[in-house]
Structure to design on (296 residues):
């Protein structure tokens, strides 16, 4: 799994590339915790290039989401598709996660808040 | 909403899903690093029609992971035994470990019932309390959500033995006729 960070104004987009599985998912969690330490406030996690997620990956997203909510920061999760979407649906977390269909939609959502 | 039925994990030593007759069999050491590899060895027996965007692989890997990690505590000398049978219409799996058993199963059922109620009521404030099932043995890498998806995915049922160190599951796949999905 590869993680790349880019910026759009004050919003940080994290492009995840690869499988969010039991061996990799902690990396995303650690990266976001480091970014929170640096007082970054607005995040988009882009899952466009993620085709596999398991319960560890879902767990990492839950952890990130609840940490960001507690600290009153902003987060959108964008471009979920295929089996990633299916696993989130099976876990009944579609309404819990802040999901956007695209990066544009996520940016619009955060900017309007 | 048909998908919001409250699912439960059953405990029944005599359940038909636990009958291993006619099933394929493999056993693995409890090596955490090889969980996805072991999973592939099992899932390769499945016809492509039911592998649907690697969901079958993902769900099988969760049950093997639970056995390796929570059952056998990653003790390489303890075995995980897997029986499996796949065709175009259904998938069956039995996974047994050498551990103490899933002692908190009743608690899990209760937790899942409350969680599903929050979901039915679209009460995402309270659902935040029920996103993840934790026990005193959970660590940072445990998502605490694998079985929530399992009871949905294995739509024909999820059963444990009385000792709770052996899980049996079955999924039925919708059959396509004239390009229309039914069932």
């Amino acid at each position: 799994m590869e993680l790349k960070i880019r910026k759009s104004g004050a919003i940080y987009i994290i492009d995840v590339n690869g499988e969010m599985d039991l061996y990799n998912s902690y990396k995303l969690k650690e990266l976001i915790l480091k970014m929170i330490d640096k007082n970054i406030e607005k995040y988009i996690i882009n899952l466009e290039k993620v085709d596999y997620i398991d319960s560890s990956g879902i767990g990492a997203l839950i952890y990130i989401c609840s940490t960001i909510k507690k600290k009153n920061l902003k987060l959108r999760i964008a471009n979920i598709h295929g089996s990633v979407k299916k696993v989130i649906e099976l876990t009944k977390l579609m309404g819990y996660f802040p999901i956007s269909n695209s990066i544009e939609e996520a940016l619009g959502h955060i900017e309007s808040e | 909403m048909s998908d919001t039925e409250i699912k439960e994990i059953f405990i029944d030593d005599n359940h038909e899903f636990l009958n291993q007759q006619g099933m394929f069999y493999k056993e693995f050491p409890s090596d955490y690093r090889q969980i996805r590899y072991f999973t592939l060895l099992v899932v390769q027996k499945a016809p492509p029609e039911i592998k649907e965007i690697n969901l079958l692989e993902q769900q099988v890997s969760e049950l093997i992971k639970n056995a390796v990690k929570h059952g056998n505590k990653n003790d390489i000398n303890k075995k995980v035994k897997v029986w499996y049978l796949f065709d175009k219409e259904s998938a069956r799996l039995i996974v047994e470990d050498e551990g103490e058993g899933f002692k908190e199963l009743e608690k899990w059922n209760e937790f899942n019932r409350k969680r599903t109620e929050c979901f039915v009521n679209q009460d995402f404030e309270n659902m935040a309390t029920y996103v993840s099932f934790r026990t005193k043995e959970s660590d940072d890498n445990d998502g605490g959500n694998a079985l929530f998806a399992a009871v949905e995915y294995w739509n024909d049922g999820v059963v444990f033995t009385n000792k709770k160190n052996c899980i049996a599951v079955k999924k039925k796949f919708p059959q396509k006729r004239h390009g229309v999905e039914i069932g």
